[in-house]
Amino acid sequence: MKRVLSVASEAVPLVKTGGLADVVGALPAALAGQGWHMRVMMPAYRGVLDRVGATDVVWAAENFFGGSARLCLGSVGGMEVLALDAPHLYDRAGGPYSGAQGDYWDNAERFAALSWAAAIVARDGIEGWKPEVVHAHDWQAGLAPAFLRYWNTGVPTVMTIHNMAFQGRFGPQKAGPMRLPPEWFHREGYEFWGDVSTLKAGLMAADAITTVSPRYAEELMRGEFGLGLEGVIQARAGVVSGILNGVDGQVWDPETDPEVHPYSAAKPQGKAKNRKALLAEFGLNAEVSGPLLVMVTRMTPQKGIDLLPQAVESFVAAGGALAVLGSGDSWAEAAMRDLALRYPGRVAVRIGYDEGLSHRMFAGGDAVLVPSRFEPCGLTQLYGLRYGCVPVVSAVGGLADTVVGASPATQALGAETGVVFSPVDGLGLTQALRRLVALHADAPRWKAMVRRGMRMDWGWERSAVAYAALYEGLIA
């Protein structure tokens, strides 16, 4: 099998703060079916070595960004992991990027170290294993392609943007501690408006750039989405492509999900049981006649959480109910609590995150709301389709790529799977929820739309084929 090294700051089932971890964790198994042996390199945060049983030390260094380090090979759930064990950088009580006092002061060095180790492995190999391609994910791994380019190794690299909003930007004084060569501090290198940007470094150095949906690849060439790096994407447009994320069909399957009453597109009866149970779990009125809308989200402006107050009143008046699960900005959490107080029995909110509850929400909800201002791919709408929970989404990024909006044309074609709205503002969301209520009231059309969404295949096979073809092209 051909070999590829995936470099990332997190991966399911070890560490997860967002969709990045889902992608990194799913790709090794998906690519194995395409003839590629993928190993994942990530930091050995506290507890990771125990989880992967990493006792085989394949590389070590004494003077490694302020302390000693070793690279340990282990596995979890069939995924081979190269865990970078550097306690002075990663053995901390907080999350992967921040602790109780905010972002770690040395994040620049922590993730430069990850990229440096990946570049060493790609250049020299370890114990007979040498990757033919390096695949770096987001800013935390952006310097891996850069180091390989600066060292003139010839190892082909892929840089994937999961979210352009996070760019790995640090002051110029960090360039030395990050082991960045000063001669590359210019606009064609890692310099970004006088600072260091590890994401820009990767984008300038990589042989191929991918995003997690085709539409997001196009959007990044515009200022409102490119966030200062749109010129880089425009300049490198010839090597930019979008490959949609997938979902794990074993984890997300309403027929076998242990959290829910089982059902399927062919036998949908269990859906009603899940709806009744979810209404009770959230303390919502059992006699809700309109659609039960669910939202599982980070509570930030990106996710459009601030649009809800304007739209909820007319939705509730039309018979709808809303259940929200998530956490984020304090003002957003307060706004959601206020909605629940204003509409008791019709709006309920749980602050925090609960994986099991999220499954029950998709199973019990009639529709799932994703009103993001930008969304590189999004997995929530895919979970909704899989569970017969009709997506209501904004027309951006992967949301627009995966949901076919209800309209006279799509109805005539028998293609509609959800509600898609634009522009992304309070009025647009209000109008989208009105359409949702009308669709829900049209029982034959609604049932056909639910069944159609459940039968769509959003597994990883299609994406794995695309990544494999990309790798093949780079080494050809």
Automatic annotation (TrEMBL):
Q: Which residues form the Starch synthase catalytic domain?
A: 3-234
Q: In which pathway does it act?
A: Glycan biosynthesis; glycogen biosynthesis
Q: Which InterPro entries match?
A: GS/SS (IPR011835), Starch_synth_cat_dom (IPR013534)
Top-tier EC class: transferase
User: What EC number(s) would the UniProt record show?
Assistant: 2.4.1.21
Which parts of the sequence bind ADP-alpha-D-glucose?
K16
UniProt xrefs under CDD domains = GT5_Glycogen_synthase_DULL1-like
Select a single GO molecular function from the record's annotations and give it: alpha-1,4-glucan glucosyltransferase (UDP-glucose donor) activity
Pfam families per the UniProt record, alphabetical:
Glyco_trans_1_4, Glyco_transf_5
What UniProt keywords are attached to this protein's entry?
A: Glycogen biosynthesis, Glycosyltransferase, Transferase
Which GO cellular component term is one of those annotated?
cytosol
Highest taxon listed in the record's lineage: Bacteria
Record function comment:
Synthesizes alpha-1,4-glucan chains using ADP-glucose.
- State the similarity comment: Belongs to the glycosyltransferase 1 family. Bacterial/plant glycogen synthase subfamily.
Task: Please identify the protein, giving its name as recorded.
Answer: Glycogen synthase
* Gene behind the chain: glgA
